[in-house]
Each structure stands twice: as C-alpha cells, then as structure tokens.
Amino acid sequence: MLCCMPGVAFVPALLVSWSSAAFIISYVIAVLAGHVEPLVPYISDTGTKPPESGVFGFMINISALLAAITMYIRYLLIEKQNETSRFVRSSCNMFTLCIGLMGCTGMGIVATFQELAVPSVHDIGALVAFGSGVVYITLQSIISYKSCPRWNTYFVCHIRMAISVISCIAFIPMIVFASKISMTKIDWTPGEKDYTYHFMSAICEWTVAFGFIFFFLTFIRDFQGFSLRISTEIHED
C-alpha cells in the first residue's frame, strides 16, 4: 500500500503506522508480562523492562528518524511553494524545522535512557519531545492557514489547528500532574498515593502523543504531489 502512494506520501504514512505500532506493541507486551497495569500507564512505563524495553527503544528511535525525515520534507515542500506564493518567511520555516528536530532528539533520548535507569535524563528528553512537538504542530497549523487557499483547504487547516489546540491543552496538565508525583515507579495500582496524579498525567500524555500521530496523518495528501529528485552532475576538465 505504501509503495502505491504517489510522491513522498509514503513517508508520513510510514511514520504514522510505525509510531502507532511502537506504542501498541510495547503496551501489549508490558501488560501481558505483568509489568504495568492495563489502565492507562505512562507511555515510557511500557518500555522500561525487558523484553518490551528493547522493542520500545528500537521502534521509537526509528520513529524519531522518520519524524525528522518527514519534517525536513515538509520544510522543502513549504520552501518550494513559497517560491511563487510568498506566504511565509523562509526564516520562520527554518525555525519551525529546528523546533521539530529538537522534538525528534528528545524522542531519541526517551528511547535510549530508560525511565528507571536514568530518570532525570529521561524526563528531560520527554519534556523536550512533547514541548517541542506541541510548538511544532502549532506553528505548522499557522503556516497552513497562511498557505490557504492555494496550497491547503480550510478544512484541513481547521483539523490541524484543532489537533494543535487539544495537544496544547493536554500538555499543560500533563506537566502539572506529573510534577506532583513524589515517586518514580511503573507498577501503579488504584488507591495508592499519587495514583490520581499519575492517571490524569498519563491520559494527557497519550492524548498528546496520538495528537502528533493524527497531525502527521494530515501531511499525506500534501506529500502526494511532491517528489524528491536526486540530480548528478558530471564536470569535465
């Protein structure tokens, strides 16, 4: 199916499917192994202990790479469209790309430094990943509106902005509730101390994560009409 997509639409499609699989597979393995409770664990909790830690680390690192490639193609696409329309400054487009790449770096840190092994580094990576991700999709939503009606429909722009707003709203309580948790653990059970904070923070975390996935899903149509060409030049003396 991915090979049949025109242009480079297969890139965001692969990112969306791979990232969804990474979250779901790690969650299923962790629950079946009895390492986490089925009811809304943190995403990182599902990739802390083996064997799911290996799956989680590998797949999230690939997701970070795919996200970086998707963001770079999106940058090139906007630059190409901007040659005729001039709807956004090139510096703004570059800044948005840099913010997105920061988020990808945060994802790599989350995947590499596990929650219980190096919690401080893991938490910094998660904050960078989610914070930069929310800023990136918000900026992309604004750029999408600026490119209307020639390069985007208002319907797609409304969807992107709605996802951005929901992600921003969920990001704030995610941080607030997480900061109130006084212990680092993965095997949470209802009724224990700080469980409510953990539960609310985890719901917000999953909301933001899948917000990113649904946002990149909207890139597929834009990427269908864009192709990358590699040119080689032979210089003769």
Structure description:
With 237 residues, this protein is an all-alpha fold. It has one domain. It is built from seven helices and no strands. The chain has helices at 10-32, 52-85, 90-112, 119-146, 154-179, 195-217, 219-224.
Task: Describe how the helices and strands are arranged.
Blueprint: H1 10-32, H2 52-85, H3 90-112, H4 119-146, H5 154-179, H6 195-217, H7 219-224
Helix pairs in contact: 1-2, 1-6, 2-3, 3-4, 4-5, 4-6, 5-6
Protein traits:
7 helices; disordered C terminus; 237 residues; mainly alpha; single chain
Describe the structure concisely for a colleague.
69% of the residues lie in helices and 0% in strands. The chain has seven helices and no strands. It is found in: Endomembrane system.
Number of domains: 1
If you average the pLDDT, what whole number results?
91
Structural class assignment: mainly alpha
Task: Give helix and strand order, one letter per element, not per position.
Answer: HHHHHHH
Uncertain segments are: 230-237
Largest sheet: none
Beta-strand content: under 5%
Q: What is the helix content?
A: 55-70%
The CA-CA distance between the termini, in Å, is 46 Å
Rg over CA atoms, rounded to whole Å, is 19 Å
- What is the 3D shape? elongated
Total number of β-strand segments? 0
DSSP summary: helix tally: 7
Q: What kind of oligomer do you see? A: single chain
Keywords: Membrane, Transmembrane, Transmembrane helix
Membrane topology: Multi-pass membrane protein
Organism: Chaetorhynchus papuensis
Main location: membrane
